[in-house]
Amino acid sequence: MERKIIQLSDIHFGDVTFSTSLKDNALKQIEDENPDLIIVCGDLTTDGYLHQYEDAANFINELKAVTNVHVIPGNHDARNVGLIHFQRLIGERKFSQIDKNGGFAIVGLDSSQSDLNDGQIGTDQLIWLESELDKIPNDLCKIVTFHHHLLPIPQTGRERNILLDSGDLLRVFIDYGVDFVLNGHKHVPNVWVIENMVTLNSGTATTRKLRGETYPCYNHLIIDNGNVYVNLINTETGYKKELARYSVKMESDEFNICSYKHNLL
Fold first, then answer.
1. Rounded distance between C-alpha atoms, residue 37 and residue 41, angstroms
2. pLDDT-derived band of residue 155, with 50, 70 and 90 as boundaries?
3. Are 106 and 70 within 8 A, CB to CB?
4. Mean local confidence (pLDDT), 136-143
């Protein structure tokens, strides 16, 4: 059974480069795609202020009119005690969902720290994560999402944005057979594979806060029988480019990525 997942990140309501037209484009494009799930990987706001969260909540409600939506906070959302507004207007800062019919399970984590750009998962969340991963059958595709980078990303300048405890988190992922990690943060789309685990970064969907030759964009995942496809969608034009393709197979009743193809951005 085919499942479509949209990965959005870095919406940044309140930023001077935020574009209402890009936001409207993204909403129309997502409606046309008719996905089964939307994941927003943090930084809904720029400063964590109430009025920015109110705008973000309106947008999230528009997305919820399309399909099921999960949101985790980013470092900008944690500014100015903004996580209070996040919990009241957006929802819980971590989540876990198992979709046996769709063939996947996804866990969301909060990597933000109040008024800091650095990210960290922390011991309590690591323990919670292990307990949630323990509940997921091995034959499902395991997806984990949080805002900050697990691994360094090209074209982001001096690397200082990976999680402070990325090593501990990476060990948990390998031990529990996580297949996909979805992140945002530096507005640069990218994909790495390490230990048969895919780390997939999303660009900024609705701003012109761009690095190099990147453009406003978001990711579109299709999980189908024996394959996973990742498309990069240009928010401005709607142009869709295949970013990656993975073939998967069941080995001893366990979901495994057995081959992949990555295309240049």
1. 13
2. confident
3. yes
4. 92
Domains of the chain by start residue, with CATH: 3-262 (3.60.21.10)
User: Hey, how many other C-beta atoms are within 10 angstroms of the C-beta on 109?
Assistant: 26
- How far is 237 from 233, CA to CA, in rounded Å? 8
Share of the chain above pLDDT 70, in %: 97
- What element of type H or E holds 240? strand 240-251
Beta carbons of 44 and 56 less than 8 angstroms apart = yes
For residue 160, pLDDT over 70 is answered with: no
Would the pLDDT of 257 be above 90? no
Model confidence pLDDT, tens digit, residues 35-82: 999 999 999 999 999 999 999 999 999 999 999 999 999 999 999 999
State the burial class of residue 66 (Cβ atoms within 10 Å of its Cβ: 0-12, 13-18, 19+). Answer: middle
Phi, psi of 224 (to 5 degrees): -125, 175
Q: How many residues can be counted in the chain?
A: 265
**Helices within 70-208 (DSSP H only):** 83-85, 123-134, 166-176
* CB-CB neighbours of 250 under 10 Å: 11
- Which pTM was predicted? 0.94
198 contacts 179 by C-beta, under 8 angstroms: yes
Asked if 248 contacts 255 with a C-beta cutoff of 8 angstroms, the reply is yes
Distance CA 52, CA 13 (A): 6
Enclosing H/E stretch for 28: helix 20-33
How far apart are the C-alpha atoms of 57 and 240, rounded to whole Å? 27
What three-state secondary structure class fits 216?
coil
